[in-house]
Amino acid sequence: MLPDSTLALLKQLVKVATPEELIWSKGYIAGFLEGRNTPALPAPVAAPVAVKPVIIYGTETGNAKKVASGLLASFKKKKINARSVDIFGFDPLKLEKEELALFIVSTQGEGEFPLNAQAFYEKLTARQYKLDKLSYAVFGLGDSSYPLFNQAAVLLDEALTKQGAKSILPLVKADVSYRDDVQQWETALEAVFSGLQPNAVVAAPTEPAHSKTAYRGVVSHSIVLNDTGSNKETHHIEITTDEPVDYRPGDALGIYAKNEPAKINAVLKLLGTDANTLIVINGENKTATQWLEEKNILGLSKRSVKGIGALLNTHFADEVSDLEDLLSQTGLPQDFDVSALIALLLPIAPRLYSISSSPEAHNGEVHLTVTLNTFVANGIEKQGLASQYLTAFPKDAPLDFYIHRNNNFRLPDDSRDIIMIGPGTGIAPFRSFLAHRDATGAEGKNWLFFGEQHFVLDFYYQTEIQDWLTSGVLTHLDVAFSRDQQHKIYVQDRIREKAAAFNQWLQDGAVLYICGQKSPMSTDVEKAIIEVIASQRGISHEAAAQVLETLETEGRYLKDVY
């Protein structure tokens, strides 16, 4: 037994200690007792927690799934009987039989749900459910640079409340660096589960301050990497700054593109509005041109199109994407209010581009690898706003930008081997990785998979890559040029060809990276990797998928897909 004073002190220390501190203390006491030749007391076994939460994640690039997997693994270690499911295909009707649901959802583009979560939200808001017995919590993943920060999480939280479900914790709106927020959320959840703090509050920023540092530089160099005759127009762009830019390999550069004057004038003409007409919106007075310079008039979201259609008393097809297209298809009502339409338009969201340089190798410069995005809508060829803005940016003109930290896509320690899969502009961060490892003399081995359409026309950074291969910085190089033969070959085919070596690298501890288009590239590559793991290790497809998921949870499988 302990004296009352000692017992009170111990209780106070336990009350304020974190779980990690308690674990450390247990080990310290055990070691102390062993040092005194006193047998250590057996470690207490965690008692099972009565709650059985279902973790439901909605993800576009995989971050929400990663958070869900990590949370599930942590819960299992603590005897919390949880399960994790993809929101895609999950019927809201099933929530009527659940007692506790934990939602982890990301926000895409202009405040939209990820593709795999859109059907769930539409069903949830289409009818009334009996959710009065459901308790829930929502964790949002977003980027505070965007106007509608974590809007999907906000909408989901509101919809669940309207359905009668009870929130056990405040909505968490996490920014791009979300690891600390996840840990705080998990701690608060466990406190609620155990009944210690029924009204616990998460110490996470619900409206985080914008902490991104703004920079100004000039485009000092811009060249097309493709040769004449290519189907692509991919630019290597170098931005020079007077002040040092704080970034690391794996980070992205963010820009706020501006609408072309010709596009603005075309919209003004259709609106029958003079460029200098003063328009007041929410108490702010600007000219029509000034408003349209900063508003998104290209690639409108479904929400914007629907709102404009209601304002103009018409319905637009889903394919129509630009404001000019909408206005050219219908007349304006007699009492039409231009300010009402402009108010429906969202501010131009930032665009992110993976940085393809390394501060150790390219002092005073930031490099980008940008493909001009071209597409056809309503039979008209169009160009992406940001890619057109950057690829046509005047030389030596000032360019404002910021650095987007990507702590989920970092190089490991210098001795660790890495496998990089980056077709197309997915090569960008891996050029940064290789330049960094070359400049710092890192000892880890490097294996690169690169793909494009044609070897002669589309082998980006060919000379640099061959130099790294010759010098030994690049240990292995496998390329796939899909249209150089009748049967198309992609990077996933090269992975299958090198199955034994690929699997051995993973078993030896290599970190695996994928960068580039999410669909279909990253999906097809992941399928090939699972096939390789299954065949080489003699295990089932499901077990191989679990191996890859474990690698992701351990931080050895990292994706930057879009």
From TrEMBL:
One of its GO terms (cellular component) is cytosol. GO terms for biological process: cysteine biosynthetic process. Residues 53-190 form the Flavodoxin-like domain. This is assimilatory sulfite reductase (NADPH). The keyword Cytoplasm does not apply. It catalyses: hydrogen sulfide + 3 NADP(+) + 3 H2O = sulfite + 3 NADPH + 4 H(+). It comes from Flavobacterium akiainvivens. The keyword ATP-binding does not apply. Keywords: Amino-acid biosynthesis, Cysteine biosynthesis, FAD, Flavoprotein, FMN, NADP, Oxidoreductase. Transmembrane segments: none annotated. Residues 212-412 form the FAD-binding FR-type domain. It is an enzyme of class 1 (oxidoreductase). Its EC number is 1.8.1.2. GO terms for molecular function: flavin adenine dinucleotide binding; FMN binding; sulfite reductase (NADPH) activity.
